[in-house]
Amino acid sequence: MEKKINLKANSKIEFFLIHGYTGGLDDFNDFPRYLNEKYNANVKIALLKGHGTCVRDLVGLRYEDFLEQIESELKKSLNEGKKIILGGFSFGAQLALHLAAKYPVKGAFLISIPYKLKFPFNFPKLELFGIIKRYWKKANALEMAILRNSFTYYQHIPADGLKVVKKANKEIEGLLAAINVPLLLVHFNKDRISSRRSVVLLEKKVGSQKIRRVILKGKGHNIFYSNKRGQLYRAICNFFMANSEKDKQERIAAIVPAYNEGPRIASVLKALVDLPLLDQIIVVDDGSTDDTFQVASKFKKVMVLRNHKNRGKAYSMERGVKATDASIIFFCDADLKGLTPAIVEQIIKPVLNREYDMFIGVRNNVSQKAVKLAALNSGERALRRELWDKVPKEFKYRYRIEVGLNHIAKIKGNGYGWQKFNYYQTLKEKKYGFVEGTILRWRMNINVVWAYTAVILNKTILKKRSID
To answer: Which position has the higher pLDDT, 312 or 139?
Structure first.
């Protein structure tokens, strides 16, 4: 029985991968060979104790036994001078997180980490039922075993396994603040074992300044054996292996529609000008009656266009798109507080790396915290130009545009992702006074309601056609 995968390359980079509890060397599907052949990376996977034989051999093994084994293997690679990127699936992700806090690795990715378990696994003292039933059948176990065609995969899990996972979470809890390496967390939104809150909670607790989470649509646990594995591979490789030459192959333009934002637009443009990733910055002054045009024109790197009368947000966005040949567009409102170059880059990168066709920056405003639909209508978003071209003209009208973009990204694109950042939008009532601000807000709300109604009707019509 093979005890290790060790793919060699002419490189110092090594992906040190750790498989899951009751899994095996093939937990990562063909990803190790993909890394080795496409990115010239060394790949190492050690078979954990008690695996590759029969499930009974796991009984009695403690978390410390697995940690000691994998720690010993990692030290060998570090002593060889390898630049280590840790990667773990499920229980292996817990081990990877533990090691990332203790050793000088270059980063870590955690797939389906069971940091926050779902029912019934989160039931207090559930492991005590092992006295009655020592081995528990996995959901879809036979289907997965056939798919993998592997003897290293167990179709049952010992009750002891729940003790091991809970012990792992207890051990890593005190180490999270010490983790300062780049960290990528990937999870299915409907994982059967581990809650998606696992990555949300970890994102808040770890000390790393470079952390990214990716939530994929799916119900399984092992993403490497799902139809999302291509997206998973790209997310991992782009996070750790992307290079500046690749980034330079595509032009990126920032487009800022603005109406009477003279007192606020300068800080937004300062953040954009300070980001080298942007090839072009375009402000479209939508018929302002204040000094918006003059303030924007003071920035030498900014192209300023002007509508002779107010035509609405979507019209201004369209005009900006027509003024550039960039393949990636970053839209940005002009009334933001706390926007930084780092935030803008984090919104653009998932699109640049082709993880999504669109990525949305969610603001820290009260309404966007409380209502998800409001959050996803944020004006800060990066998208591919071809996605913009697919949006029907009915949605390219004033404030209908964000709803339209979200809808088209779902049905005609590669989907969209989002992340909350610590920046804010100035309230309309504060900018324009209570009366005028309230009127403008309700005009905006009417546009948004129209757009959602159009989306619902379109879905209903399509569903009816499919039934007919």
So the answer is: 312
pLDDT of residue 218: 85
Non-local (6+) Cβ contacts of 377 within 8 A are 402, 403, 406, 448
13-18 and 83-89 beta bridge pairing: parallel
Asked if the model's pLDDT at residue 43 lies above 70, the reply is yes
The whole-angstrom distance between residue 265's C-alpha and the CA centroid of its chain comes to: 29
Fold for domain 247-455? Spore Coat Polysaccharide Biosynthesis Protein SpsA; Chain A (3.90.550)
Of the pLDDT bands very low, low, confident and very high (cuts 50, 70, 90), residue 458 is low
Query: What is the rounded distance in angstroms from the CA atom of residue 359 to the CA atom of residue 350?
Result: 7
The CATH number of 4-241 is 3.40.50.1820
- 4 pLDDT tier (thresholds 50, 70, 90): confident
Strands in 252-258's sheet, in edge-to-edge order, are: 302-307, 280-286, 252-258, 328-331, 381-384, 358-362, 416-420
- Token look-up 């050690």 returns 46
Note whether 409 and 357 are within 8 A (CB). yes
Q: Are 45 and 74 in contact (CB under 8 A)?
A: no
Model-level pTM?
A: 0.53
What tokens does 184 get? 């990528």
Residue type, 63: Y
Query: CA 34 to CA 16: how far, in whole Å?
Result: 14
Whether the CB-CB separation of 375 and 368 falls below 8 Å is answered with: yes
Number of residues that make up the chain: 468
Residues of the chain within CATH 3.90.550.10 domain(s) are 247-455
Closest by Cα among 396, 395, 331, 318 to 358: 331
CATH code 3.40.50.1820 region(s) in the chain: 4-241
pLDDT digits (tens, 9 = 90+) for 428-444: 555 656 666 555 555 66
Q: Give one word for 464, left, alpha or beta, with left for phi > 0 and alpha for psi -120 to 50.
A: alpha
Helix (H) or strand (E) holding 361: strand 358-362
pLDDT tens digit sequence for 184-240: 999 999 888 888 888 889 988 988 878 888 999 888 888 988 888 888 988 898 888
